[in-house]
Write a structure and sequence with these properties.
The chain is an alpha/beta fold. It has helices spanning 14-23, 81-86, 107-114, 132-139, 150-164, 188-191, 211-219, 256-266, 316-330; strands spanning 4-9, 29-35, 59-60, 72-75, 94-97, 127-129, 144-146, 173-180, 202-203, 229-236, 242-249, 273-275, 293-299, 305-312. It folds into two domains: 4-148 and 318-330, Rossmann fold (3-Layer(aba) Sandwich); 151-314, 2-Layer Sandwich (Dihydrodipicolinate Reductase, domain 2).
Length: 340
Amino acid sequence: MRKLNVLVAGSTGYIGIQLLKLLINHKNVNIKYLCGNNSIGKKISSFDKSFNSKKLPKIVKFSKKLLNNIDIVFTALPNGEAQYISNNLLAKNTLIDLAADFRLKNANDYLKWYKQKHKAPQNIKKSVYSLPEINKVRLKNFSIIGCPGCYPTSILLPLAPLIKKRSVDITNITIDSKSGYSGAGRGVHRKYKKNNLYESLSAYGVGFHRHNIEIEQELKNFTKKKVDFIFTPHLSPMFRGILSTIYLKLKPGFSIKKIQNILLKFYKKKHFVKILKNNSLISTNDVINTNYCYISVCKTRYKNKILILSAIDNLIKGGAGQAIQNMNIKFGLKEYEGLK
């Protein structure tokens, strides 16, 4: 197979840098263009010294003429900008967006939660929300791929199979997630300059974080009823990683052992999801610098209540790695290519 020509738009942010670090070691990829707005003419090594020895193109401004000899466009841009690029795609292009532009299936939801009008509503129907372990079958039929958010990835992977099996009370779910500050982008250092970012833990987006609608949308695919949950994200004093703790009430007839078996069966052939022994205590350290999600089902002092621990690297499984995983599936490559 010939190498796939790739353009990366938004190559200098935390996600963009991580994406490049994975792509340069992917045997089926040729990085043809790096695009940015405020770094035109610069080398990517200006943003990460590990690229000093790599032969990568200088950063240029995006223009639609670049799409003529490109197979895949990765967009790691601020929300809204991939919509513009999607309006210029050629029939041979595949767009893989790591931001939120094609996560929601309703343009009105996008306006409500992201406070901006969608600039390519006609392309929403041409896109697929792709959490690979769940949407893999549909993925190949679309040329616009919306990658899930990092928090939703850590939440949907353990929750979706359980809701599909109607094993938990969908009116009584509490989700507590803690993320490394890289999930907030480079601007986080300015935003939290006076708040002791590196030594404190802080809650944010309480009750109304924009990932609520993404989680709700996807869980509805597995039940006709409304799923009631409370999701609270926290910014923690570490660079990368997410640990989500999900509190669940079991339906009658289900036990912690049955929950474990549901997850084991669902993910039996899924390379990047590992279901650990019940009551395993996991940490972000277990998954840092990998594309894995570790899941542990834990008992509580109440027989009908459990909690689930879910850990990912927000920059890889919650971002760049998942995007590459989607690319591999779309183009018929080994799902783990470039992600070992």
